[in-house]
Task: structure prediction
Amino acid sequence: MRHIKTIGLLAISSLALAACGEGAGGGTRDSIRAVGSSTVFPFAKLVAENFARSNPEFKSPLIESTGTGGGINLFCSGVGANTPDMVNASRRMKLGEFETCQANGVTDIVELQVGLDGIAFASAQGGIMMNLTPKIVYEALAASPYGGEQTSETWADVDPSLPDEPILVYGPPSTSGTRDALKELILEVGCKSNEDMKALKESDEDKYDQICTEVRADGRYVDQGEQDNLIVQKIENSPRSVGVFGYSYLEENLDKVQGLPMNGVEPTYDNISSFAYPGARPLYVYVKAAHRSAIPGLDQYLQEWVSSWGPGGTLANIGLVPSPDAEREKNATAATEYVTISADDLK
Result:
């Protein structure tokens, strides 16, 4: 369970952090630096802008879109002014990543669930329309569906009820948290509809992971990089194609694209907040407690998140789906008291 850890010697932590930064060639830093998810990026950017307006005595935070996996690698590289204070993540930190953090001296980590998002499947307004299921998506995109050869060229090849149009999906790269969520929430669910795959998970997990999550590399799935807005542009210009990105990008671009239902459920605000839509997922921010008193404005920036993530808040206005009340209350406490996580929380 989560626990509150006392960060000792807070009075000299600023000096210790500065010394750590200088030892690594990083020097000192007087502004917050956050890296990570392209999905969380627009929300973090808005919080940073509001923070800068409300707290002119502090410099505006630097927010970098590096992808969740790449951002966590940077975050876990060590403690010091040359390392990020925070990482934005479109999935929860993995146990192996947490252990890397610990090994590199990043021992006190605060986890905040800042809200919910959905993995939206979409096409251009007036473009291809179909009711998808995790099984359909898996069979269309898997490199080796159920361990066999991938032969589907059109959506109708996967399911005769679907359009006889070429499969062309623009989606996130392997470093993206959106790609991880696509694997866990959609591809694996579709794969496990097969009883043999369920049994394979028990007998050979590595082979199961390969069969159930590896995406085809023959040009039918196109890795479009970390910028989800580029996927919007691609499908807008290619009406027969499908895009995969965070729900917020769908809501922001409804004049250009349309959501595709999954299991007959539309990717809407209400359906994601209730987890009725299969692609719903929580979004996270991770913070180094060791940087708390060393980086000016870090406390205030976290409180800006807390005041922004509720129903009717500024983040909901740009597509973030608020977490349930109890979850928001727990995370508000974590942001205020620097409640840190342990390995057991991630198992």
Residues 1-16, 18-26 have pLDDT under 50 and may be disordered.
